[in-house]
Each structure stands twice: as structure tokens, then as C-alpha cells.
Amino acid sequence: MDILVINSGSSSIKFKLFQMPEERLVAKGLIEHIGEAGSRFTDHYSGLKVILDKVDGVQAVGHRVVHGAEKFKKPVIVDTGVIRGIKKCCAIAPLHNPANLSGILACQRLLPGVKQVAVFDTAFHQSIPAHAYIYGLPYDYYQRQGIRKYGFHGTSHHYVALEASRILKKPLNKLKLITCHLGNGCSITAIDKGSSIDTSMGFTPLEGLVMGTRCGDIDPALVTYIMRKHKLDIKQMEAVLNKESGLKGVSGISNDMRRLEAKAKAGNKRAGLAIDIFI
Prior knowledge:
Layout: E1 2-8, E2 13-19, E3 24-31, H1 44-54, E4 60-65, E5 76-77, H2 80-88, H3 97-110, E6 115-120, H4 130-133, H5 139-145, H6 154-168, E7 176-182, E8 186-192, E9 195-199, H7 221-230, H8 234-243, H9 246-251, H10 257-265, H11 269-278
Parallel strand pairs: 1-4, 4-6
Antiparallel strand pairs: 1-2, 2-3, 5-6, 7-8, 8-9
Helix pairs in contact: 1-3, 10-11
């Protein structure tokens, strides 16, 4: 059985085609810089169309989906209800869930009748205890609106923990680990005996470390202060925090660490500062 695995990230698409149950890798590929200036891929759909036009014999598709809130705690077969749930979470994962959904909808068009499975990044972090996921806000916000820390990159953190166990030759249920996911989006997770007990990302993927285009942790009062000073509306402020900050915002150059390292070596101080903040 040939299974296509798709990871539609915030600025990239990765795919691999596996022959199962042998776990034999048949094909793989990567598209980067989606939606960035100079890229021929204006959105995720255009990239996925190229990929799916070239891959033959797909019998099932697995999708990484970033946000499943508390609704999705394990992988699910995609149907109209699952699509509605993913759409509902787009508001709290605006850089990712729309891209993940684009992959699902593209596959529906290009691979009609092929079963699809959604695997949620938030699912691994459902083991985080309440004292670690409840914010210091009125508890009613959690009860009525589900405002809490969810955490992301769960599939990555789970895999890294399994690999650490294998390499260290120690059972996962005997280990205490700190796992790191470092890319355009970044997070770290504390794992005790195979279960996530805390993580750096929160209600959305914006919280935590400085990232490619996201600010990470800042003083919450800065949001309203900047909005007042620069006369920004909510949509504009969200764009600043999610798309114009992080390495890109500090350096004024790019969210690509490769470019920043080259610029820093050439003497660009802001590129060097961005790298120092990240490290």
C-alpha cells in the first residue's frame, strides 16, 4: 500500500511516499519559500498541485495538521466534520491550519476517493497537566472559550523522544527529556516517561521562542501599546506578530538563517543581533 505523507508548513511543503507495511521510502520532496517574494509558488495549493501531479499510485494520504484544540486527541479519518473542526481552529493557528487544509482539499480534488488521515500536532500535548496549561486569566475564559496552552509540533517532539530513546538505548518510560523543534517555527518540550508535561508554544504557535517571522514571548501590554501608537487594527497587529517579527523583523532581511549567517559574516550587525537573540 502506497501512503503519501504531506506536511504543509507555514512556508514550505514536505512530502514522502511510503510503501507499507514495508516502510520503504519510494519518493520524497520539498518546496520552500511559499508566499515569499520571488517564489513561483504563491500559495500552498500551487505547490501541492505540482507534487500531486507527479506522484502516482497513492492509496492513502496522511496529513500533519497543526491545531486540533481539545477536540482531536488522536489521528482521525478526514470527513466533512473533521474539515469543519480544522477550519474552526484556523483562527488560532492562522499560519498553519489554512495551509494544512489546503493540502487536504487539494488531495480531495486530485485524488478523489482516496482516504485521508489527519494527525494533529496538539494531540501529543494533551498529557500536559492543568497547572501547566491554564493561563493566569479568569478561569471562565477556559471554560467557555477553551483558552489554554495547547502546544504544537507534537508529532516532531514525539518522534525525537523515540529517537533519543533508541540512540541512548534506554526505555522511553525511564527517560526525562527536553526536545527541540527548530525551523521557521520553533518550540521546546519537557517529556517525562514519554509524555509531554510542558511546552513553549501556547494557545497559538505564536507563544514561546523567537522564530522565523513570529515574535515569541513578549510583554502582552506591548500589543495594545503598539496598536495605539501606530493606529493598527486587529488584523494588522496579528500580521506584525505572526509575519513581520522574529528573525525577519529584527534583522530587516529575512527569516532564513542561511541568509542571516552570510550577512552577519559580512558585517551586518542586525543580522548578527537576530542570530544572537535566537541562540
